[in-house]
Task: structure prediction
Amino acid sequence: MIGVELRKLVRRPRTWVVIGLLNALPTLVAVLLAVTDLAPRPGTGPAFLSAVLSNGVLFPAAALAIVLPLFLPVSVAIVAGDAVAGEAQAGTLRYLIARPAGRTRLLVAKLVAVLVFVALAVVVVTVTAYFVGTALFGTGSLDGGAVGAVSGVPLSPRQAVWRTVLAMAYVAFSMLGVAAVALFLSTVTDSPLAAAMGALAVLVASSLLLTLEAAGALQPYLPTRYWLAFVDLFRQPILWRDLVRGIGLQAVYVAVLLAATWANFTTKDITS
Amino acid sequence: MIRTRGLVKRYGGVTAVAGIDLDVESGDSYGFLGPNGSGKTTTVRMLLGLVLPTAGTVEVLGAPIPKRARQVLHRVGALVESPAAYGHLGARANLSLLDAAGPGGSRRTRRARIDEALEQVGLAEVGRRPVRAYSLGMRQRLGLAAALIRRPELLILDEPTNGLDPRGIQEIRALLLALNAAGTTLFLSSHLLAEVEQLCRRVGVVDRGRLVLQDTLAALRAPTGAVVLRTPDPEWAVGLLDGELAERSGDRLVVRTDDPAALNARLVGQGIRITELAAQRRTLEEVVLDATTTSADRPEAS
Amino acid sequence: MVATGVAVLVALPYAVGALPARDSAVSAGALLDAVRSSADVPHSGYAESVGGLALPLTEDFTALTDLLGARTRLRVWWRGDTDWRVDTVRATGESGLYRDADGLWSWDFERRSAVRTTEPTVRLPRAADVEPAALARRLLSEARPRDAERLPARRVAGRDAPGIRVRPAAGGSTIDRVDAWIDPGSGLGLRVEVHGTGGTRPVLESAYLSLDLGTPPPASTRFVPADPATVRGEINTDLAAAINVFSPARPPATLAGLPARGEGVGSVGSVGSYGTGFTLLIALPLPGRLSRQLRGQLADSPGATRAAAGVRLAVGPLSLLLTDPVDRRSWLLTGTVTAATLDRAAAELAR
Result:
């Protein structure tokens, strides 16, 4: 069943269009930076971008920071929102259930496919950004290819690679909350668009509340609260505090929403 | 093969199915009839574990549904309402994905089974064209192929000839009759009476969520004890048949009699010409119209 | 079931936070002593400071505006009074202060700048000053035990911290009180709240969220510039330090009845610093160009009033007065003193 869902994922042209678009923005940013040589003013623009001009090795991290606030969650919401609602809308859901695929199995397979998509998207963005970054900005002038971290002390290339890998893992994990929201809505509605939009509405609300001092009491529970904590991986030493909280928060969201998704989907009348 | 007892489905305050007891025997070809909105589709969905009953039990191939759906439903081929497929994939890819999505479809024999099913429904030469580009009839054929891949013991089909041209209908009807003759049980849900009349031996009629009739087609269409005759001299005949005449329309007379031969001899003996004389049988349409009340399409004041 | 689980998870942090703190019988005086001698207590941790002052200052003062008007997240490694590192962590970068025996490194990630300076005698407040322990030392070191009272203990950063409240001894201060919760063993301030007169929320609060009392490794406070090309050497860390060195002005020994603080005033520098405890008055001579800029900004900010000697503005408990130029020089008077004290100081400087 999982194999079936993965085949559907990779054979779907949309998957690759989304991943392509996901890469387009960081690449465009890189080209513009390289051509104009205009780094954003300190404190503005996405993380790492001002540092990229002197060393392309940090561009994967900058690319993650570029796609993290909107593009990545949008694409995850689209794919996860489509998971069940898309089948319902196309009418194929009834044939899968009558096949019988087993509702829990189907849900697990859909979930795995979404996870694979998230991982794939993050890996492709990072790898593309690495090649684009090093090609356009070089690997920096430091001895032995060391990379200047956020804290100003150098990271060895080995450390830099490790932290980029950790950042990829963290960003991918951060997307699971979005995926869980979209998957849940996907079992509630028969419209994949509504599911994706619903998940995005949750994110927009969360991002908005994060900017509001008055919502301080709510903020530790907002799904997007710790997203940018992946920047902490590039500090020296790594600041684990928010990363750990981010993982815990996402885990709770995922657990609760998946439980709700499962409860809803296994008792749902398939009338589409 | 199919057995339901006291099957009830309510959506909120609306009762879609109000206690249906179905019995479909092995080897049957069963026509499930009813006007739109009578609960036909909901019942079919409950047979396949798509809709969960509010009350009552469903047994398919001897196993309770939805509890043990996984053990039996792979031996059932189904076409529910309209066919559906992934538009960006071709016929073979679609069938392959569906077959791999559940138990009972061996990977080793998959290619051969898919080829055979496509052959059966007349899509063997379809190639790699994406389903998106298919005509309605081709999609219908593909849906049937999907129901046939695992050579099911039971076919549950909803409007199987929908969207087909007359030749297509002819082909599919022949295919279904052949499958039934070879031992496949057919459960055909339809509102096309002609189709059911040509394909089915038993029928069940639902109306407003209840099974109002369940019998063999032969029994439903048994002689009614009256005779239908046509004569160029209807006035004369009417005068003669006084008490026995049930109904008259133009030159067509319906006469109650126990003995058609005696009636014929009597009329002919009086010099009345008879052009046609037959025992009266009700058409399926009449049976269904008698049994059902009104179409749910048409709102009524209640 | 799901709803119950969520409720439990949401309530858990609050439940943990509400756990009662164990109080100890330590006296206010003993706490003050402990705080005074805590400068060399090694520790490391994560602290957050929230300022409630919206300073109408921009350009040269943005760092100060952020420090007193927004949330600052700090990472601290402290090996001793002249061997520490305080990082200000931001979502998209960070800036770090690395202190060693000879001076100070200031690192700013977004500007890619690493600046080496000596520790100035006079300077503007910086991130390391709102580190809770340093803040507690600064605010409480001059307090006398009779100005202090004990507050019930609170749990801060997982420790039971007895509290202390200090009110200003002398009049003329706009600070109502300073509440601090102290780790009794080490004397480190774990949580400090500065309350102005009037207003319910503290104008500045700073607290550890996690704290480790072990000695951090030497490498943790040592700055090694990743990219030597970005390093600059500068003598002065900020504007105040530069003025202190370059301005020919000399402030008087006492101002508005407040004594000068011991920080080298009058001898070498031109910036005057007066008052005791957390009653603070600073007199900063500004050259013509700077004072014109600042006067424009102050005049445009809502709440600015015209005083006899210049433009006056109060932001929470912080008052500012910029005198009108005399001989192309103005004085910027600022501190936690009342408007009347500022006016008096301005009058004295104009003589």
Q: What stands out?
A: Chains C and B do not touch (no CB pair under 8 Å). The radius of gyration of chain C is 21 Å.
